[in-house]
Amino acid sequence: MKKLSRRSFLGNSTSLSLAGFFGMMPVLGKQKQQGDFVHHVYFWLKNPGSAEDKAKLIEGLNTLKNIKAIQLARIGVPANTNRDVIERGYDVSWLLFFNNLEEQEVYQKHPVHLKFVENYSHLWDKVVVYDSVDV
């Protein structure tokens, strides 16, 4: 058996440790996915004070969550935050994540989405959409 010097042992240990660390990096943190597509929709109700209309819209949005192209879906209402840069005039928000633009287009043409627009569009007065891609 060959005897290792302290310097040789430390050098080999450091190399192995660094190789192990860099090999484990994807495990340590979430890897960035290329091509993520974000679709964020804001709804202003025709009757902004109507809890019933808001509940109906939320009910309708929940029907969309089962569309397979959607990676993540969240329904929200304005948070109780007050700064000059915060828009709080909307009633309901619909935040969606897709793997790419093509899957978002599948969602747009999906029969469940088309039925949602048909059944619930009478509730809103205005819709604003922000689409973005991950950089």
Automatic annotation (TrEMBL):
InterPro entries tied to this protein: Dabb, Dimeric_a/b-barrel, TAT_signal
Membrane-crossing residue ranges in chain numbering: none
Highest rank taxon of the organism: Bacteria
Signal peptide (UniProt feature, chain positions): none
All copies of domain Stress-response A/B barrel, residue ranges: 37-132
Name of this chain's protein: Dabb family protein
Top-level taxonomy: Bacteria, Pseudomonadati, Bacteroidota, Cytophagia, Cytophagales
